[in-house]
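Thread: Modeling a multi-component assembly for a lab meeting

Hi all, long-time lurker, first post. My supervisor asked me to bring a structural picture of a complex we are working on to next week's group meeting, and I have zero experience with this. I have the sequence lines for every component (622 residues in total). Could someone generate the structure of the whole assembly? Inputs are pasted exactly as I received them:
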Amino acid sequence: MSPWKNVSVLRKLVQLGAFLFLVYGGSLTGYYLEDKLSGALPALSCAYDMQGADLCTLIPFQHQMDHRLGEAIAGGGNLMLGLMPTLITLATFLILFAVLNKAFCGWICPLGTFQELLHNLGQKLGLQRVESLPSATVQRIRPVKWLILLLLVFGLPLLAGIGWVNHDLGDPFCKICPSRILTTLANAESTELYVDSASSSTLVLSILANLLFGVMITLALTVRQPFCRICPMLALHAVFRKLGMPRLVKHAVPRCDRCGLCAKACPMDIREIHSEMQKRDVTFEDCTLCGRCVEFCPDKEVLQLRYLGFPVFSADPAYFKQRKQAQRHWENTTLLDRRKSGTGKAGITPP
Amino acid sequence: MHNSVSAAGAMLLLALALTAPQPGAQSGALQNDNHTPLAAAGQAHSHRRGAMKLLLENAEGAQINLWKPDLTRLPLTIEHGIVTLPATGVDNYHALVIERDWGYLHETLIRYLYLHGKPSGHSTSELTAAEKSSFEIVPDPVPREHQHYRSDQQWRFQVRFKGAPVAHLPVELLSSYGSRLSAVSDERGLVELRLPDDFPQIETGRRDRRGAEFTLSAELSKGGITYQTRLYAEYRVNPSHWHSLELGILAGGIGMLAGGLIGRLAVRSSR
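Re: Modeling a multi-component assembly
Sure thing. I ran the full set together rather than chain by chain. Output:
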C-alpha cells in the first residue's frame, strides 16, 4: 500500500507538523501571548512553552475563573463582567472547534502525538502491548476526565478567586499537566520538571505532575493514549461535539454484530462504535476522530468521516485489505527483529 | 561620565529605583490609590485596574508620557513629586517614558509596566520596537505576560540611538542591593546580563516573594550633547531556591516505574 494512501500515515504527518508548529512555532508567530494564534486552542499546547505558537484554552479558563469570575463573586462585583472574558475565550474556542471538532485530539494535540509515538516505539521495541483495555476498566476511567475538568479547570480556580482555597490552586490543571513538562523539555528547558516546596499545595501538585508524566511515558509504550483517556480537553470537546463540522457516521449493517474490528482498532477503546446499531452519528465522547475505525471497517461505507455531511473518508473493502497488509508488515518489523508483534493481531494496533 | 553631567547634580530619579527593600517587604514606590505598595508595578499577580502613583525625584522640567500598547501617548503631570498613572483600560505592557532636556544633556528614564484592562490586540513587540526616546535601552524581550525578571536569569537588552542599535557602548546594571554589573553592547547593540542573585537571607526550600529593582544605564555623546538613559525594572527571587529539579526527576522516575508496572499488569490482564 502506498504510504500516501494510508490515512494513518497521512495523519501522522499532520500530527508531526502540528507538533513542530505548536511546540517550536513561536519564532513564526511571535514571543508574546498577544502574538499567539488564538489563545484558546482546543489542544494541549502549553503556554509555559516560550517557543510555542499557541496555547490551550484550559489556561485562560483557569485564569479567568480565578481572576475574573472568582474575584467578581468575592468582591460583589458585576458577575456578567466577571464572566465576559470566559465567554470570549469560549467563543474563540468554539470557532476553532467547529472547524475540526474532536479531530484536534486525534490530529493536532502535541501530547496525543507524543503518546502515539511512544506506543509506536513500544511496538518497535517488541514490547508486549495491550490490544484493548477491559470494558470495565474503560468504564471506570471515563468519569475521571469530567472530574478533572470540573474540579481542576473550573472548580478550584473559581474557589481560589473567591478566596476559599489558597491561590496556589488557581491553575491546578496546568500544575499537573504533562504537556507543560513535555513541551518545555522539548525546548531543552528543565525548569518545569521540579518539585515545588513553596506550599503544601504546590508540593502535592508538583509531585503529582512528575509522577503523572513518568507514568504516561512508560504506560504509553504498552497502552494506547493513557493520558488522553483522562484529559479534561477530551471532556470539553465532548460537551460541544454536536457543534463540530467533522463527524464519525455509521450506517450499521447486520454484519456489524459479528465483526467488531472498528472497536479493536480504536485507540480509545470505544466499543460503542461496534455495538451502536441505531444512531448515525457515532462521534462518542471519547472519540478523537482519528479515523482508524473507518480504516479497519471491512464493509463499504458502513463507517464514514463526514465534513458538514459530506463524506471525506469512507470504509472500503479494497482499502481495508491493503491497510491490513500494511499493518501486518508494520507489526512484523521491529527494531529488535523479533518477528512478532506485541499483540499478535495484525490490523488492529496502531502504525 | 562627563564632568558636566555629574555637576548637574539634579538628575531625574525614580524614587523606587535604588531603595533596598527590607527583607519580606516589597519595593515601595509604586502605589495604588490607597498608597499601599504594589510590588511589581503591574507585573505582580494582581489584576487591579485602578490608578497607580509613582514617586519621582528631581523631576522639574521633565516630560512624562505613558505609551499605551497601541503606541498612543498619554501625557502625565507631576504633582508634589508624584506621578499618577491613570487606568488606561487596556491590557498589556505600557511604557512610562520620562525625558528631560538640559540642552547639553538629555535624560531618559523608561519603565515597562503591565497594566490590566481589555485585551489590547497589540503585541508588546510593537511597543519595544517603537522609538520612545532618542536614546533608550530596550528589553529584548520584555518578560512575557505573567512572567517576571528573576534573579540569576540571563536577559538581553538593546541600546538604541534614534532607533538604530549602538555598538560597543558600556552598559551598567545596578540593583537595589548594590550589585553592579557592566557589559558592552555588541555590533547589534545587544547586551546580555545575568541578573544578580543578591537577595539577602534566602532560605532554601521556602518561597520568597520579594521583589527588588534594577536599573540599566548608559551614556552617549553625540553632537555636543550628552544622552543618558536608564531602564528601570523589577526582578524577583528565582524560584529555583524552592524548586528541586533533583526531586522532580526522582518523582518522574518513580512515575515511570509505576507506569511500567501498570503496563505489565494491563498486558497480563488483557490476555
